[in-house]
Amino acid sequence: MVKSGNRPLSNQLTIALYLSPSPNSASHVDQRIDAFLESFYHDKLCNLTEEDFQGQVEALVNLKLCADVHLGEEVDRNWWEVLHHTYVFDRLIREVSENSK
User: Fold this and answer.
1) In angstroms, what CA-CA distances link 79 with 73, 87, 93?
2) Cα dihedral sign for 1, 45, 12, 73?
3) Could you give the dihedral angle defined by the CA atoms of residues 53, 35, 31 and 13, in that order, rounded to the nearest 10 degrees?
4) What is the pLDDT of residue 79?
5) Predicted model pTM
6) What is the mean pLDDT of residues 72-82?
7) Helix, strand, or coil here: 22?
8) Which of 18, 33, 67, 69 is deepest in the core (most CB within 10 A)?
């Protein structure tokens, strides 16, 4: 895997996995991704307390509220909206509002 991330999409969280070419078959890679998601669910999510969950939400909100360090961050964020034809230039504020509920 080259990198992973998430993408907000119509109030649904999607996970994006970016893979580099592999000598393994697509079926094998798919099975490994499924195994990871299964273990993540059982090992992490099932054992997550409400207090830990709220701590994660607060950390995410604080991260989204951080001011841009340089102009390029704001430019990249706004160009992403233009390139994907979403035009939600206040996305961070909306996400913080949703996460704070």
Assistant:
1) 10, 9, 17
2) negative
3) 0
4) 93
5) 0.57
6) 91
7) coil
8) 33
